[in-house]
Structure formats: C-alpha cells, structure tokens
Amino acid sequence: xxxxxxxxxxxxxxxxxxxxxxxxxxxxxxxxxxxxxxxxxxxxxxxxxxxxxxxxxxxxxxxxxxxxxxxxxxxxxxxxxxxxxxxxxxxxxxxxxxxxxxxxxxxxxxxxxxxxxxxxxxxxxxxxxxxxxxxxxxxxxxxxxxxx
Length: 148
Ligand SMILES: [Zn+2]
What we know:
binds zinc ion, Papain-like_cys_pep_sf, 3 helices, alpha+beta, six-stranded antiparallel beta sheet, single chain, two-stranded antiparallel sheet, 18% helix
C-alpha cells in the first residue's frame, strides 16, 4: 500500500537506537549494534518476526543469504535512485567493492540511520556519497501487501 505507515514506523523505531555504541555483530541496544543489528532490532520493534540470518558475511562478494532474506514478502524492492527521498526505506550500500552495509533512510538528502564504525555509534547522518546503493527495499507488513 502506498500510504501505509510501515516506513514511518520503521524510521521511528530506528531513531531509538541513535547514540547506541557500535559493535561488530552486535545485536543488543545495551551492548552495541552493527548495521544489521540496528536494522534487525528496528524491524523487530515494529512487529517483524525473524532475524536477519546469523552467519551473513558483509565481506562476501555474493551476499546470497542477505539477498534471500529480502525475498520475504514484507520487503518490496524499490528504485535505488529515489530510495533516499522517503524516510524509512532500507538501503544496502557498498562502502567498497567487497563490503555491504545497511541503513534506514531519513528522507533528507543522503541522510540515513546506520551503525557507523567510523564514529563507533549509531547515527543519523549523511551517508558518504562514495557509498553507492546496491539495493533498496520498502518494508510493509500490511495484510494487503503480499503480492504487490
Ligand atoms: Zn504497510
């Protein structure tokens, strides 16, 4: 549904983790989060059941497990060129050719919420513009969303 609140809810949920310390593989707001942890917890906060697969590799050229995860019906692929325009979209970016990183868009410029290792914290800040988007999804858990 175009006008559902799922993205707004995801963005609000992610905002709660701004300021949480960065921890590689971290899955707890108390002890630290990485980018996948931030996204997982934000999704779980708004009722998503399930984890982004443990054992994913953010440094794998083929990120098959991650790609498989986003084939779930709650995730709808969207145009990467307009992904930053709306708050609450999920983006996968490439800080370098071998690495992927996840963020939740803020709907302002290139801003997004993500666990940023460079500042050791979850931030809402402009993403480096040399981190191209390689995938973008809209999360929607509305009952009518499947098959859209
Ligand atoms: Zn929805």
